[in-house]
Design a protein that fits this description.
The protein has 1 helix and 3 strands, in the order βββα. The chain has 66 residues and is of the alpha+beta class. It has a single domain, classed as RutC-like (60s Ribosomal Protein L30, Chain: A, 2-Layer Sandwich), CATH 3.30.1330. The longest helix has 18 residues.
């Protein structure tokens, strides 16, 4: 099977040569997501604010993987 790297815009992991996920066939494997903003920095706020942002980042990675 062919592997496809999942890339999002912005991709805060790019400077670290990390992948947000891998797609193979109809499966998508995603890495852990942090509560980072579009600038690559952790968003300010409490646990709930950062958690919501982490799930938004997870959603973006999954959408990029189809």
């Amino acid at each position: 099977m062919q592997l496809k790297q999942i890339v999002t815009e912005p991709d805060p992991y790019a400077p670290y040569l990390l992948s947000q996920g891998i797609q193979t066939g109809n499966l998508v494997f995603v890495s852990g997501q942090a509560g980072y903003g579009d600038d690559g920095k952790i968003v300010e706020g409490d646990f709930l604010t950062q958690g919501r942002r982490a799930f938004k980042n997870l959603e973006r990675a999954l959408k990029s993987g189809g």
